[in-house]
Design brief:
The protein is an alpha+beta fold and 171 residues long. It has a single domain, classed as Gcn5-related N-acetyltransferase (GNAT) (Aminopeptidase). It is built from five helices and seven strands; from the N terminus they run βααβββαβαβαβ. Strands 1-2-3-4-5-7-6 form a seven-stranded mixed β-sheet, sandwiched between helices. It is globular, with a radius of gyration of 15 Å. Bound molecules: coenzyme A (COA). Coenzyme A binds next to strand 4, helix 3 and helix 4. This is GNAT family N-acetyltransferase. One of its GO terms (molecular function) is acyltransferase activity, transferring groups other than amino-acyl groups. InterPro entries: Acyl_CoA_acyltransferase (IPR016181), GNAT_dom (IPR000182).
Length: 171
């Protein structure tokens, strides 16, 4: 196991192939989003996308997000656009490659997102928990939130265990 600190840096366009490999390790095939979608999101919202590198400097994890509003859910595969009057940072996908699991990469990426949310005076952060990650997000302070009908329809594009969650800081 590496003892080096995990390097977190902004995502770049040429990180997409490595991100696809991480994604394939983390989700079943029907939940994998294609390269052109990842690239278009970076072009629209690259200031809220981060990668984590392993000891060899290779991209081994990522977090992609955008500024949004309470109650809005991003359907699987849809483009990102920052809200004109944002309230929250919406974390669309946090994925840690198998080799980097359990070494704090997820917490480091979430910390980068929280720092940005605070710096931009947002009210908090939202996300859709999938893949059995509910307890993970609860440990980090997110709570289950209810959704209106439009949000429920977007939530239905995910797996059956999908849950909408929100976090309000005390800063
Ligand atoms: C869930 C995931 C992001 C956690 O990554 P990780 O590398 O294990 O996270 P970290 O090493 O930063 O650990 C953070 C803490 O959460 C805990 N944790 C990790 N997975 C957990 C889970 N499924 N349930 C509860 N706690 C969990 C860790 O034990 C650790 O606790 P500690 O601080 O007491 O040691 C990772 O397993 C992953 O990428 N899974 C596949 C993709 C996915 O499901 N993403 C979330 C979609 S919403």
């Amino acid at each position: 196991m590496s003892t080096r600190p995990i390097l977190i840096r902004p995502m770049q366009a040429d990180d997409v192939p490595a991100m696809l490999a991480v994604q394939a390790q983390c989700y079943p095939p029907h939940m994998n989003e294609p390269a052109d979608v990842l690239l278009a999101r970076w072009q629209a919202c690259g200031d809220t996308a981060w990668v984590a590198c392993d000891a060899q400097g290779q991209v081994a994890a990522y977090l992609v997000a955008y500024r949004s509003v309470w109650g809005k859910v991003s359907p699987l595969g849809q483009a990102f656009a920052h809200a004109a009057q944002p309230e929250v940072l919406y974390l669309h996908d946090l994925a840690i490659g198998q080799a980097l699991r359990g070494q704090g990469a997820a917490q480091a990426l979430v910390a980068a997102a929280r720092q940005l949310a605070q710096a931009q005076a947002l009210q908090g952060s939202t996300l859709v928990s999938v893949n059995g990650s509910l307890a993970f997000w609860q440990r980090l302070g997110w709570q289950v939130m209810s959704l209106e009908a439009a949000g429920q329809r977007a939530l239905a594009t995910y797996a059956d265990d999908a849950v909408y969650m929100g976090w309000r800081p005390t800063w």
